[in-house]
Design a protein that fits this description.
With 504 residues, the protein is α/β, with parallel strands linked by helices. 34% of the residues lie in helices and 19% in strands. The chain contains 16 helices and 16 strands. The N and C termini lie far apart (75 Å).
């Protein structure tokens, strides 16, 4: 008797374009996966493994062929229907976890159930069982920044299986689970024979990445306008020189133990300043505190991944706080805001929070740092109705999406993802967009560069922007000084409250 098929792929074709030259990535791929079956996709970097997984998961479009999940064809489904299908039938384990930094391990695992509108306490109980199943029953209340790389990966696995999906799509999911092997390289007792495992040679991890594991969170006091601004000595913005990391999260607990050293390393690498973007209302005070303490810029907003925790009064508070902070030379805009369609279904509540934050930015004439992930069409719908300036963070969309954002006067942000050889589309965008249309960013502590991944250190830092700048200069055929000049000019145009000095 034939087993029920979880995934069916037939004749799948995917082609990217390098200018006028087509770059075939997937050609006539056909296979099926039955329930209970494990299939490994092997290949070198850039061979199309991630593209195939994204196509199977409905995260990327295909040029031809068909993908069926649990008997349902993905062709012709709306984004809402695709989101519902992913939440119902698929589990994802991403290479870089994509855990919510302000959520505990327990709440990260419970999130897919909450998206289904299931009871919160029942969801947490199911999440607890999943975490116990992966050996993390003692780490339920730890934040991602307080977990090791292998522990974060196990949280991601627990999140993938908590919905009991028909299929789990995993991208290098076991890469950092090698610590569970015995010192002699043999499997621990209880490892099932025949189970497919990918266990590369262990790499030494830099110690600074987890020195903050048990650090206490520093308090900054109530958030209020900068004292200098209150005395009327506003200088028209911050004066900077060198590269600028236009998007990072230095308020994250991952930087609690060594933030001063992180900022110093960035400046030593030629990254003169950083824009610290808030995640949600819980970290607004710390975001402002960190920026002021280190002479940085900051933005306030509610990240779409944190909308499930947000309240309507948070929008009112954000509006009042942004208006009061206009006198603070460190405050420059609204962010990180946007729509998230990769790990969440874009619903009316998510769009409401995005729309209202756009209105705050438009009313105060402030730029935005905009999160876009599998959500470009809905973002554009709102952005065409509420016009703002700013940056589309970590852009990785199609040519049509790129042109649509640029037509609205927005800049595109590029960071560590561009440093991977397989990131053909991102690299092409970085090479082709006009000189006045892109900025550089790190998204620290997330979005590590290829160099950090290869070293085993998955905490990105603002200093990494220097690597991205060198890559951008090479792709665009300009000198590093020319790239620096372009970057400064565009950053200044994107963030009007920043006053940047040009290179001499």
């Amino acid at each position: 008797m034939n087993k029920e098929l979880a995934v069916e792929v037939s004749g799948l074709v995917k082609v990217y374009h390098d200018g006028d030259h087509p770059v075939p990535v997937l050609s006539d791929v056909t296979f099926s996966v039955a329930r209970g079956e494990t299939v490994a996709i092997l290949g070198s970097s850039g061979s199309g493994k991630s593209t195939l997984l994204h196509a199977v998961g409905g995260l990327d479009t295909i040029d031809s062929g068909e993908v069926r999940v649990a008997g349902t064809s993905l062709s012709g489904l709306s984004q809402k229907a695709l989101g519902e299908l992913r939440n119902r039938s698929l589990g994802f384990v991403y290479q870089f976890h994509h855990l919510l930094p302000e959520f505990t391990a327990l709440d990260n695992v419970a999130m897919p159930l909450w998206i289904r509108r299931e009871d919160q306490e029942a969801s947490r109980e199911e999440a607890r069982r999943m975490l116990e199943a992966v050996g993390l029953g003692h780490r339920l209340q730890h934040l991602p920044s307080q977990l090791s790389g292998g522990e974060r990966q196990r949280v991601a696995i627990a999140r993938a299986i908590v919905t009991k999906p028909v299929c789990i799509l995993a991208s290098d999911s076991s890469e950092r689970l090698h610590s569970r092997r015995r010192a002699d390289g043999q499997p621990r007792q209880g490892d099932r024979p025949g189970r497919l495992r990918h266990l590369p040679q262990a790499r030494a991890r830099r110690g600074h990445g987890h020195r903050d594991r048990h650090a206490r969170r520093r308090t900054c006091g109530p958030l209020r306008p900068h004292p200098q601004a209150r005395r009327g000595r506003h200088q028209g913005g911050l004066t900077l020189q060198g590269l600028v990391d236009t998007h990072c999260h230095l308020q994250a607990l991952a930087f609690e133990a060594d933030l001063a050293e992180v900022v110093a390393r960035a400046r030593a690498a030629g990254v003169a300043d950083m824009v610290v973007c808030a995640g949600g209302s819980d970290d607004w005070e710390r975001t402002a505190c960190v920026a002021r303490e280190h002479g940085l810029a900051y933005m306030l907003g509610i990240h779409p991944l944190l909308v499930p925790k947000a309240h309507e009064e948070d929008l009112e508070r954000l509006s009042a706080l942004a208006e009061a902070s206009m006198a603070d030379p460190h405050f420059i805009g609204i962010g990180e805001i946007g729509l998230e369609g990769l790990v969440m279904t874009i619903d009316a509540r998510q769009e409401h929070f995005f729309r209202e934050q756009l209105r705050i930015a438009a009313r105060l004439d402030l730029p935005c740092s905009i999160h876009v992930r599998k959500s470009a069409s809905r973002l554009l719908y709102h952005l065409r109705r509420i016009r703002v300036t700013g940056v589309v963070h970590a852009f990785n969309g199609s040519d049509a999406e790129r042109d649509a954002f640029l037509a609205l006067g927005l800049k595109l942000g590029f960071g560590g993802a561009a440093t991977y050889e397989g990131s053909l589309r991102i690299r092409r965008h970085l090479a082709e967009v006009p000189a006045d249309a892109f900025v550089l960013e790190s998204d620290a502590p997330d979005m590590p560069s290829s160099a950090r991944r290869d070293s085993g250190d998955l905490r990105s830092e603002p200093a990494d922007v220097a690597q991205t700048a060198s890559l951008a200069a090479r792709l665009r055929g300009v000198t590093r000084d020319e790239l620096l000049f372009q970057s400064i000019q565009t950053t200044q145009a994107a963030f009007k409250r920043l006053k940047l000095r040009q290179l001499r």
